[in-house]
Amino acid sequence: MPELALLHLDGPIATMTLNRPDARNALSLDLMHALHARFTELSARAEVVAVILTGAGKSFCAGMDLKQVLADPDAPGRLLGSLAEFTLNLRAFPGIVIASVNGAAIGGGCGLATVCDFAITHADSKMGFPEVDLGVCPAVVAPWLVRRIGAGKARRVLLGGGTMSGREAHALGIVTDLVETREQLDAGAKALADHIAAGGPEALRATKRLLNELDGSLDADLGRRSAQLSADVLRNPKSIEALRARLGP
Questions:
Q1: Positive or negative torsion for Cα 19, 21, 26, 31
Q2: Whether pTM exceeds 0.90
Q3: 219-237: buried (b, 16+ CB within 10 Å) or exposed (e) per residue?
Q4: Alpha-carbon distances of 97 from 72, 125, 188, 189, rounded to whole Å
Q5: Which stretches does DSSP call E strand in the chain?
Q6: What is the tens place of the pLDDT at every residue in 14-28?
């Protein structure tokens, strides 16, 4: 069985890859476990200044593995709790994290992009938060989206549901950087990582730490309460019924 999360180190730049391409890198319990394990490895590497987070295959991350949610009554709480902890750890990481959104970033996947300090995608990628369309509450990603684009825009995005193109996501500020084509993305992400890694590591870490304090990024209680709220909605029989109807057999 292949590793579900990969970590590649290249001097001061690391690349972490969600490696479940057959399932569009959907966040299963096993994938979350692998991400936490790779992140523990990464956190021990003091030389890393910049991290690129990306997905294997054609998708960045399709969000929660909803098939697992439907199959296991305990999965919602465990998955959402694990995701909430991962987002907090990702934001607290001293180095600068760049999401290279190579393809679809949906729900929790789009949320991961907003947790990162920078996010780059291509104009035709598919992004968004369609949770409400499926009867799911996007509480885990909501605080991160509010911090990224502001409360008013986040309200419109999360309550409106649906998806958008990478160009539209860039216009809204969901991603910070944009290239025109998928073929340009790897070079764009590397150029951004190289630029960051050339800066002063201590200055970057101190600045990120201050920014995290200023915007409340490390409010662990809010993150955990948000995960509990999402899990409570998913445990509701009406929500499960609606989700089954939307996903089909």
A1: negative
A2: yes
A3: eeebbbebbbbbbebbeee
A4: 32, 20, 14, 11
A5: 5-10, 13-18, 50-55, 59-61, 96-101, 104-106, 118-122, 126-128, 163-165, 177-179
A6: 999 999 999 999 999
